[in-house]
Sequence to fold (226 residues):
Amino acid sequence: MLYVIDTAHIEEIKKCVEIYPVAGVTTNPTIISKENTDFGTLIKTIRDIIGPDKMLHIQATSMSAEKIVKEAMELQQFVGGDFYVKIPVSPEGLKATKILKRSGIKVTMTAIFTQQQALISALAGADFVAPYINRLDNIVSDGVHVVSEIVEQFKNYDLKTKVLAASFKNVEQVHKVACVGSHAVTVAPDIFEKLIYHPLTYYAIDDFEKDWESVYGDKKILDLIG
Ligand code: G3P
Fold:
């Protein structure tokens, strides 16, 4: 399982990369627009923070295959490192994916809502497909079920494409896509923090501290064995 952060907020990225086992960063035009800053500087700064080995997914903004391909190639040059161009699934997006695969540029096909969109994206050469869990749940569909069938299809047809589940609003959705074998999840920082939160853990840590202090006072291990 790969955990990816779904944000372009510099401070949040710094914090998450320092704390969690993060495999990379995903953005989209909505996420980038929220930062309302110079685009080039922003993506270069993200690359500097995460380093060249972590994945950086940046979405193309053009609609025609020809322009998507051009944007992807320029972005790859500009941002460097382990780069993925995100392309919303569409006829032009699929056409661009096939061209980009021949040029060795990695593609994450995004805005996936159905199993067939995912399968066709995989056959066109996408490295990742990104199904939108919460947006499916919001329309009384079942995001986790869609992910489970995509994972099954990729296994059945021995496809190398991975599922990068996206659009989460709670920990349960993340947990359930992990249970059905999603290869990766991209999670906003506020949900990320909740993934490891449990009040009983804090009670346990508190008890450990109190019991230790009842015998050793404010001395720590290094004071006792140093
Ligand atoms: O990575 C896709 C994701 O950003 C969409 O999430 O919360 O806008 O549905 P959301």
Q: What stands out?
A: Residues 6, 26, 28, 31, 130, 132, 134-135, 166-167, 186 surround SN-glycerol-3-phosphate (CB under 6 Å). The first strand starts at residue 2 and ends at 6.
